Amino acid sequence: MIHISNLRNSKLYIRFLIIIAPLFLLLAGRSDFNNTQQNPRELRIKAIAGLKYDIVRFAVKPGENLRIIFENTDDMAHNLVFTKPGKRETVVKAAQMMGGAGTANNYVPESEDVLLYTKVLEIEETAILEFTAPEEEGVYPYACTYPGHGFIMYGAMYVTTKPLPPLASDKNVPENQRSPEFLEKASSPHPYLITYPTIYRTFMPECSPAAIAVAMTETHAYCWDAAKCMLRYTWEGGFLDNTAHWKGNGNALAEILGKVYFKNNNQFPFSLVNTDSLLTPDFGGYKLDKEGFPTFLYSVEDIKFQEHILPIAGDKGIQIQYEITSITEPLFYMLPKDNKVSIEIDKGTKEGEYIKLMPEEAQAFTITVTSLNQ
Known about the structure:
This protein is mainly β. It has helices spanning 10-28, 31-38, 88-96, 101-104, 182-185, 243-246, 359-362; strands at 41-48, 52-53, 57-60, 65-72, 81-83, 114-117, 126-132, 138-143, 154-159, 198-201, 211-217, 220-225, 230-236, 240-241, 255-256, 259-263, 270-271, 282-288, 294-300, 303-311, 317-325, 331-334, 341-345, 349-351, 354-357, 364-371.
């Protein structure tokens, strides 16, 4: 592009106008030039209730200039991420593996498969993407990469000059938006195949809105409260039914498919004295091990906690593995009450309702919770 302000010689400037004037007149009559070169084509996409985009596919010409206005009208956070053809699930899975780094990076992994993206939008926020469509024709997916969303919340940008396939048979579009009756007829409460372990950020019974539900195996799961930094409860039998939420009730609680066998007390379980003096933890996210199980990170002032929860072989209970650093005085763990479980701690001594851990014991210890329902 030549900027007129850079043409310092007035004679050259006049000659420049004379030469290019016919070209401007010629191009002014071409609609494709006006649409793709002067004014980008504008498209509005909304995140709507039920983990959906209101537009699940659209077509653009190779090299066409676009301006996408993305608006979050749902009552939970969403983003909009475009990927290379065939790479949606790869990017979505990578985002889910980001753990605690996800929040700071808008749940967008560093990957050459990511073409462009918005930040995570809160309720009623708007973002704008301006870009030139690829020259290579193909189907370029877009998805919300907030953990758990992108398996069902996605769409397709067709870079093509050909007609689109019939919507009813378009497998680049979520099935529940090809057939409105899909969720009613589905035999599973999950609109995609679950692999284990898997993590949901959803609304759970008897938990703060910052619930993290983890399916460790097909028959064993737990709820972890990120607001209080504590395991809330564990159940056996199945995972969750989020149908009410996916159908549009954004505040609906997930239904537990199984029987809760272990509940923690309704407070952070650690204290520095075995009294009612409570500690206030700060959540620091989570990281995933090589098998996909999360380790929750949180702190109390200078004390750093890592909490890793694994199933016992045979799904008979759980092991909670703690690593605590910068601890310089005894730490007390409050034993849960009213549970049909046996609880064993490999370190410390019992003092009434507490387990007392000396600083060197608190650095690494394991709590084993075994269900008595077996």
